[in-house]
Specification:
By secondary structure, the protein is mostly beta strands. It contains two helices and nine strands. It has helices at residues 12-21, 125-130, and strands spanning 2-4, 26-30, 36-37, 52-56, 60-71, 74-83, 88-91, 106-114, 117-124. The radius of gyration is 15 Å and the shape is globular.
Length: 145
């Protein structure tokens, strides 16, 4: 986890999206209360401070909750992932069948291109290791999802 210095006046969502483009998972940390803050915002939800700094996440986390969504296009999962830095985000686990994602699975962040933009997704650590990736900070893929 390292600090990020965004351009002056950059909107939180822009800083986050720029991170995805660079293959990074960025989040904020409150300078007053040290809370990890995600989704990007201008005020800390824990204490109300506007003193939020940016950090790069290790990208490692644990599946907190998951569900398989069935639709006309097939099935996909929606998962809540608890990141090791102390924040939770909604995403998906890409390398496992939608109905086979298990709560408690260790996962690593990566990006995939979807509709022409990078999207944050996760892969099970064992799959990341099989592919020669450490499971965190996985290089950005150019595959379509």
């Amino acid at each position: 986890m390292t600090e990020v210095t965004p351009p002056a006046g950059a909107a939180p969502e822009v800083v986050f999206r720029d991170g995805l483009t660079a293959g990074e998972l960025r989040f904020q940390r409150c300078d007053k209360c040290a809370a990890a803050v995600f989704q990007p915002r201008v005020l800390c939800p824990a204490c109300g401070s506007d003193e939020l700094g940016w950090e790069r996440s290790s990208g490692l986390g644990t599946v907190y909750s998951t569900t398989a969504v069935r639709g006309r296009e097939g099935m996909h999962n929606v998962s809540l992932v608890d990141l090791d830095e102390g924040f939770r985000m909604m995403s998906r686990v890409d390398d496992v069948d939608a109905d086979q994602v298990v709560i408690g699975t260790r996962v690593g962040f990566t990006t995939v291109e979807q509709d022409g933009a990078p999207v944050a997704v996760f892969r099970a650590e064992s799959a990341a290791a099989r592919d020669g990736r450490p499971g965190a900070g996985v290089p950005q893929d150019k595959e379509q999802s």
